[in-house]
Amino acid sequence: MVPRAAYIHVPFCAHRCGYCNFALVANRQDLIPAYLRAIEREMSLQFAEPSEVDTLYFGGGTPTQLSVEQFLRLAEIVTRRHPLADAYEWTVEANPADLTQEMAEALAHVGVNRMSLGAQSFRTGKLDVLERDHRAGDIHRSVELAARYGMAVSIDLIFAAPGETLDELREDLRCTIDLATQHVSVYGLTYEKGTTYWSRRHRGDLVEADDELQRRMYLEAIELLTDAQFEHYEVSNFARTGHRSRHNEAYWRGDEYFAAGPGAARYVRGVRETNHRSTTTYIQRVLADESPVADREQLDPEAKARERLIFALRRLEGVDRAEFQEATGFAIDALAGEPIKCFTAAKLLIDDGKCVRLSREGLLVSDALWPELL
After folding, report:
1. N or C: which end of the chain has fewer CB within 10 A?
2. How high is the pLDDT of residue 47?
């Protein structure tokens, strides 16, 4: 089946936050013209003919770091190769500090109907710790702009920042709920190797929140957001009725998807490919008519089924045994019967014989379960 989702990586940021390990370049807007040429070249090599998609996602980096003219050019390049189906979803990530009225108008003009806003917090002290360049007023202004131009808004929040208290997280959650946005993603702060946060933690400059506080924060987020009528539909994601991220759900269903840009990962015809993370290497290779691919993996049917199982278990509704077997040709119990029995006995999974899903306790430790299922 031809993929119906496409991701475009836009690697430009004003600066790199201390916790970030994404594929990006900071303060290198001089590379944008060459990046646009490379994206156009890469996509022309991927597709002999246009391929229609239901969901399109521009992530980063910060897509709104492009000028209005540059963004319009990128949108034209991509939608020429990926025309949008009826009832499409087109998401663009945005930084509250640099979203202007002109950019919001440009997004709406080309048909963007969903904005993912990297808010992370509404509190000045926490934003400073996270090395963010915006303030609460920028978040409010960005949400108002998106609403004015007919875009749904998803807010990203980080919890367990160094020194953060439970009451301070509650304040962030209440501010988010008061904004009346359609979607919220809530992530615990992680310390990734290669980031400045990783080094600062090892030097003792930053102290990671203890496990019990992180647990309480996550449970508080679930309680406050579900009380506010957000549906908790995936480990980290909450949505108003009808406003789930359709693009991300394609990933969690195990669907295939297109992707382009530095560090972008695609899954097409059973093959996973990941482009070079370095923006300059990506540009140089593509403009020299060389492949930008750094890693390639052909998944066999069992590997595809196991991967699908793990992604599907991230969703709160879990995995239906009959549907899974019909989609993959494998029975869940043949793939992972023993781990599922163990996790069910430990009350980390709930298994009613028809469906397997995470319990509340399982949600708290879900990342530790996945290796056992592979």
Report:
1. N
2. 82
Residues 162-194: pLDDT tens digits?
999 999 999 999 999 999 899 999 999 999 998
Whole-model pTM: value is 0.96
The predicted pLDDT at position 213 comes to: 97
What is the three-class DSSP state of 163? coil
* Under-70 pLDDT residues of the chain: none
In DSSP notation, 263-324 reads T-EEEETTEEEEE-S-HHHHHHHHHTT---EEEEEE--HHHHHHHHHHHHHTBTT-EEHHHH
Bridge partners for 355 per DSSP: 320
- CA gap 204, 253 in Å, rounded: 41
Are the CB atoms for 373 and 336 separated by under 8 Å?
yes
Nearest to 372 by CA among 329, 338, 348: 338
CATH code of the domain made up of 5-252: 3.80.30.20
| pLDDT of 273 | 97
Could you tell me the residue ranges of all domains in the chain?
5-252, 319-373
